[in-house]
Amino acid sequence: MPVRLYPQGEAKVIETLTKDLSLGGFKCLSPTAKPVATPMAVELDLGPGAHALDLRAQIVWFEDVPQSDQFYLGLVFNELNDKTRQLLSRYLERLSAPRTHLRTTS
Fold this sequence. Notes:
Thrombin, subunit H, mainly beta, globular
């Protein structure tokens, strides 16, 4: 899922993709390492027709991506309100729902 990270106190935006998204937080790639405890404003893109979620998060870990100039960042969401939690929960349910394929016969 596309995500934009806005590190507190910086004008630079990090545009990347999430991995391992949950109601607690997510992992993503970053071109730069950020210190643990760095606060971030996060904009999660929930896809066509959906409003992006604007959240607050904090970096809880980072690690080098082997043979790369990039880093993995682990972020935990700061308190999610009920509405945001429900929206994110529904989105995650849709992602995990089995996909059905229609078969056509000739």
